[in-house]
Amino acid sequence: MTLELHRHEVVGLIGPNGAGKTTLVNVVTGFDFPTSGTVSLEGEDITSWPAHRRGRAGLARTFQHGHLFRGLSVRENVEVAALGSGAGAGEASRRADRLLGL
Question: Model-level pTM greater than 0.85?
Fold first, then answer.
């Protein structure tokens, strides 16, 4: 299978149960690894990259059920997400301010 996506492109992935939609997303985002073939990002083979490295490069996924940290404020939850994407503490704070319009 060859799948080519372009920056800022919005696509849909549809198919019946068991067709491989989740497997495809897992392989592209590094939550699973292919038994053959490669995954490339901007011409670079990233097949062996773990999920966190792919996420920092801009390949990320969301799950159907997001979970918040109940003991944290909305702003703090946004900061945690920024920290998880590789931002330092100062950058996480700035991102939270920007995203929340503060």
Answer: no
